[in-house]
């Protein structure tokens, strides 16, 4: 087909979509008591994925997502549910750098009540 353009979706965008869809459909047990859902956490933090994998500069959209997530914490269950969602989502992203993602809040001028690593026990974060 001469002259036709083939639309190619970059692998990163496909991976991001898969992670978003998986998290939206997979509520965590901690989420049952929390008012924060994995879908919300995913929506807020999806703009942070590129920094978590590739580094560079943290986008303003990522920082806004971090701030929106922090503003949504009302209880310890909210914090624990968000921790679990971030941990589950990060585990599904090839090449994620946990030290990098744990530094995002500081780079955005805010804080995070937990550090997420594969070994983090989100049920014990305060």
TrEMBL record:
<keyword id="KW-0732">Signal</keyword>
<keyword id="KW-1015">Disulfide bond</keyword>
<dbReference type="InterPro" id="IPR000528">
    <property type="entry name" value="Plant_nsLTP"/>
</dbReference>
<comment type="function">
    <text>Plant non-specific lipid-transfer proteins transfer phospholipids as well as galactolipids across membranes. May play a role in wax or cutin deposition in the cell walls of expanding epidermal cells and certain secretory tissues.</text>
</comment>
<dbReference type="InterPro" id="IPR036312">
    <property type="entry name" value="Bifun_inhib/LTP/seed_sf"/>
</dbReference>
<keyword id="KW-0446">Lipid-binding</keyword>
<dbReference type="Pfam" id="PF00234">
    <property type="entry name" value="Tryp_alpha_amyl"/>
</dbReference>
<keyword id="KW-0813">Transport</keyword>
<comment type="similarity">
    <text>Belongs to the plant LTP family.</text>
</comment>
<protein>
    <recommendedName>
        <fullName>Bifunctional inhibitor/plant lipid transfer protein/seed storage helical domain-containing protein</fullName>
    </recommendedName>
</protein>
<dbReference type="GO" id="GO:0006869">
    <property type="term" value="P:lipid transport"/>
</dbReference>
<feature type="domain" description="Bifunctional inhibitor/plant lipid transfer protein/seed storage helical">
    <location>
        <begin position="38"/>
        <end position="122"/>
    </location>
</feature>
<dbReference type="InterPro" id="IPR016140">
    <property type="entry name" value="Bifunc_inhib/LTP/seed_store"/>
</dbReference>
<dbReference type="GO" id="GO:0008289">
    <property type="term" value="F:lipid binding"/>
</dbReference>
<feature type="signal peptide">
    <location>
        <begin position="1"/>
        <end position="32"/>
    </location>
</feature>
